[in-house]
Amino acid sequence: MIRWKQVSALKDGDICSETIMGSAKDDIIIKNGDKITHKSIQKLHQRGIDWISVYEEESFDTAVNDLFSEEKLEKFSTELSKVCEETLRDGRINVEKTQQISDEINQEIIEEYGEYVVPSLVKLKKMDDYTFTHQVNVAIISTILATEKYGKKKEIIEKFTMGGLLHDMGKLWIPEEILKSNNRLKDAEFDIIKKHPEYGFKIAELSGVQDTAILNAIRYHHERWDGKGYLQGLKEHDIPLEGRFLMVADVFDALTTKRPYKVEWEPYEAVSFIVKQSKKMFDPEIVRLFLLSFGLYPVNTKVILNTDELAIVVGNRRGSMTRPIVKVIRDDQQIEIDLSQEDKISIKKVVKIRMLKD
Ligand SMILES: [Fe+2]
Q1: 7 and 120 share one domain
Q2: FRET label pair with 37: which of 60, 95, 173, 192, CA 20 to 30 Å apart?
Q3: Calpha distance 186→190 (Å, rounded)
Q4: pLDDT tens-digit profile of 237-257?
Q5: Is the pTM of this model over 0.90?
């Protein structure tokens, strides 16, 4: 919804809903979709502009079908934290228990796989212990990517789930003061962290994991497509496929998660980063699978349409990466528009705006 607001009442972060030109050609004071800043308020005052139109904060009902409920995710995470505790105590991973978590994740993803791209990825954000929640998130993301490639072949995709659940197990042997350090790591400390894929691989092997695909996922998840990763610095197709999958899932989750030393990125920003890093950090083929899975505009991305309406992405249809399903508010009604079916309506730009419900 658009409403008029007095310039003196504007707040940092309001989003302008019109383009205001000065008297000279090309003199743009503020553009439609721009965030209001202290500087732009000053500019508007200087030009004697008293009123402008802004996008009203909306409270969209974004109750889309989440792939997993928060309770389910917490359950996975708690179970995995128990596996980790036991691993530290016994020096062995309870592979059977991990397999049970993996089976549950798998079943749900296989059932959901269809015309719609993953509706929403509710992530575990609230829990304190990053390592377990991160491994659950990465397992889910890599399973979704694998499903995109292999369809519903459980016997294949479960290896990516197991790989995700176990990929950072080696961190159990990295001193906490290094892992939890909020300071920039010294080279020597980073060298220690770099060993976790190898530690993870060894403990998994020792615990009876024999499947090469799972072991590869753990061992090579920090190798980069351009050869600048660790631990072996392998390049392109020399990196086992499972490692290349895990790399994308791992980075996407890390970027979109809040950490003591960084804010979480919006999913849209993380997707853009993944695309930019194609052929640098990531295998371009897996970036393509990633876009097919999550779309260019993931669920909850806020956008401005060419109709100048503020909208929120609520779903993506397989094969329509740039034309998601969005919700707008018209006459107080929330309307869903499937942009893949509407050739006159398109996305003009993405905005970072906090919704009332956020
Ligand atoms: Fe890692």
Answers
A1: no
A2: 60
A3: 6
A4: 999 999 999 999 999 999 988
A5: no
